[in-house]
Amino acid sequence: SQTIHQWPATLVQPVGSPLSLECTVEGTSNPNLYWYRQAAGRGLQLLFYSIGIDQISSEVPQNLSASRPQDRQFILSSKKLLLSDSGFYLCAWSVRTGARNTIYFGEGSWLTVV
Amino acid sequence: SQQGEEDPQALSIQEGENATMNCSYKTSINNLQWYRQNSGRGLVHLILIRSNEREKHSGRLRVTLDTSKKSSSLLITASRAADTASYFCATASYSTFIFGSGTRLSVKP
Q1: A31 at the B interface (CB within 8 A)?
Q2: In what order do the strands lie in the sheet with A19-26?
Q3: Strand A10-13 relative to strand A109-113: parallel, antiparallel, unpaired?
Q4: B47-81 confidence digits (pLDDT tens)
Q5: CB distance from A7 to chain B under 8 Å?
Q6: Which positions in chain A touch B92 (Cβ < 8 Å)?
């Protein structure tokens, strides 16, 4: 069965510090991968999605970047965090094709920028 | 902009009552899905309805889809305190999924 792991679960970072959130998927090949951000009590904002290694689309201009160095690894980064980067970050994956396409989420990472 | 928008934003009911949440979307879709999120956790897939389906059931869940009105509803029957969570609709278009802002459901014992 497929699993998705995301870490760290919680982190507190000072303004201006770098960020690296990692996500890996097991049990599937060639997944679509996603990073979403969720502000407290709000909906999900799609940040990045990737259909393959080094193929990444950015949905919203951000102080963030994403990389996919391996097929099942997706990394969210920032060189210098802003206070507004605080939030709940969710990694997700889906199979590539079909009308029954479903997206599966990791457990999320809470980021507090202080 | 958000593709799916749920209403109400918040819903509080007593255990045993039914809960109905609605979702509207803007563009054509391949399918529409409903997800549940417990506080501080990832989203869990509940049910998917394809664009050529009008109604679907799964346990105590009933989902309807009206493509002419670009809307869907999620009905949870005989609610339980454990159903307390946020519920999101999501539309799938090509490689991306767009989520609404969610309905926060509170079921009081």
Answers
A1: no
A2: A3-7, A19-26, A73-78, A65-70
A3: parallel
A4: 999 989 999 999 999 999 999 999 999 999 999 99
A5: no
A6: 101, 103
